[in-house]
Specification:
The chain has helices at about 1-15, 35-45, 60-70, 80-90, 115, 125-139, and strands at about 20-25, 25-30, 50-60, 75-80, 95-100. The chain is of the alpha/beta class. The chain has a five-stranded mixed β-sheet with strand order 2-1-3-4-5. The protein is globular and about 35 Å long.
């Protein structure tokens, strides 16, 4: 697993990706921002069980998506405290460069709308429904 995590981190940093998932020789990459790539993986029931993930920013919404995917390890360049709690509670190993209280929005005028949407949510399945509505609202 350590080899897979190092590979995922290397691909993330060298490829200008937002998230990378690795399992053996299988590598999934995305340059989409926010939780969209993770949300689509969960909605499409793509099998990511047992993968390791490397991500630029992991907020609570992304953490719930990783729990639903059943990844085994998440590396984040930046992670929010609520995301860290969600991942640890699910038994997912977590490493990170920087921890913050909450993820800020892209204009740095407040918190990320996805993080805010799930702040009071406790269950991953509930988060999925809340995020579906929020994504529809945001377009």
């Amino acid at each position: 697993m350590e080899h897979e995590l190092e590979k995922a981190k290397k691909v993330l940093s060298e490829g200008d990706y937002t998230c990378v998932m690795v399992k053996g020789e299988q590598v999934y990459t995305s340059r989409e921002r926010g939780i969209k790539p993770l949300y689509h993986i969960v909605k499409e029931h793509a099998d990511r069980k047992g993968y390791v993930a490397a991500d630029k920013v992991v907020g609570k919404a992304a953490a719930f998506m990783y729990v639903l995917m059943e990844v085994k390890n998440v590396y984040a360049q930046v992670i929010s405290t609520p995301a860290l709690e969600v991942l640890k509670a699910a038994g997912i190993e977590v490493t990170f460069e920087k921890s913050v209280e909450a993820i800020r929005n892209r204009t740095n005028t407040g918190f990320c709308p996805m993080e805010s949407a799930v702040m009071e949510v406790q269950m991953p399945e509930e988060a999925l429904e809340v995020l579906r509505k929020k994504l529809e609202e945001c377009g």
